[in-house]
């Protein structure tokens, strides 16, 4: 199983000026993100791979500031089509 990026391991620690609800929400989001299956041989990336321009911005803006949005980037062997097919075949219910 590929290693989980460090930024998904430790949510913000509670402290002065940190909303404890946000800490819990961030931990929950990181936990859910770790459940996403990735293709065999996929490796975590520190950021968006060079040349990838899709998903630079969300298609819409939430109507609330109370949103936790975490993302992770992975590089996987194979063609774009084969990776998409693998992801679609391994969706969680």
Question: How would you characterize the overall build of this protein?
Answer:
The radius of gyration is 15 Å and the shape is globular. A two-stranded antiparallel sheet has the order 1-2. The protein has a domain at 1-39 and 71-93. The chain is built from two helices and two strands. It is mostly helical. The longest helix is centred in the N-terminal third of the chain and has 15 residues, at 20-34. Mean pLDDT is 80; it is low at 6-11. Helix content is 27%, strand content 6%.
Write the topology of this structure.
Layout: H1 20-34, E1 43-45, E2 73-75, H2 80-89
Antiparallel strand pairs: 1-2
Short description:
With 93 residues, the chain is mainly α. It contains two helices and two strands; from the N terminus they run αββα. It has a domain at 1-39 and 71-93.
Shape: globular
Q: How many extended strands?
A: 2
Runs in which pLDDT lies below 50 for 5 or more consecutive residues are 6-11
How many H/I helical runs? 2
The largest beta-sheet arranges its strands as 1-2
Span between termini: 20 Å
Q: What is the radius of gyration?
A: 15 Å
Keywords, separated by commas or semicolons:
93 residues, 27% helix, two-stranded antiparallel ribbon, globular, mainly alpha, 2 helices
């Amino acid at each position: 199983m590929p290693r989980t990026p460090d930024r998904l391991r430790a949510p913000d620690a509670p402290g002065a000026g940190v909303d404890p609800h946000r800490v819990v929400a961030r931990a929950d989001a990181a936990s859910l993100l770790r459940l996403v299956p990735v293709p065999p041989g996929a490796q975590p990336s520190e950021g968006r791979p060079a040349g990838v321009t899709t998903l630079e911005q969300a298609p819409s803006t939430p109507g609330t500031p109370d949103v936790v949005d975490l993302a992770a980037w992975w590089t996987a062997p194979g063609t774009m089509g084969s990776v998409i097919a693998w992801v679609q075949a391994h969706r969680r219910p």
